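[recover] target loaded
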């Protein structure tokens, strides 16, 4: 019985702890500043740039064992110009997307 109570208490925490990306994805809008994105997601896990174009990549466990949820936000200067979300199997942490501008 104690284990059941413990599981019932921990179950909501499991889903609450992996929702920063999920909860904020729909808040990202074209034209937002880097500062606004940082307030939503924090420091990016990965960063790529080429001249004025810069990409910030964020990752979190997707809730599916062995899978990452990935969000890539692209800036031109200080403004968001695009966002891409996808899942990536864990073990592919060194995902190398197409270079910017190609």
């Amino acid at each position: 019985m104690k284990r059941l109570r413990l599981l019932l208490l921990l179950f909501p925490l499991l889903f609450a702890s992996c929702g920063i990306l999920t909860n904020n994805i729909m808040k990202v809008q074209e034209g937002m500043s880097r500062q606004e994105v940082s307030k939503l997601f924090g420091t990016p896990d990965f960063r790529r740039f080429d001249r004025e174009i810069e990409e910030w990549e964020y990752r979190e466990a997707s809730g599916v064992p062995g899978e990452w949820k990935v969000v890539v936000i692209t800036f031109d200067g200080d403004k968001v110009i695009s966002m891409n979300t996808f899942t990536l199997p864990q073990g592919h942490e060194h995902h190398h997307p197409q270079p910017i501008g190609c």
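[recover] notes: Residues 19-89 form a domain with the Beta-lactamase Inhibitory Protein; Chain:B, domain 1 fold (CATH 3.30.1450.10).
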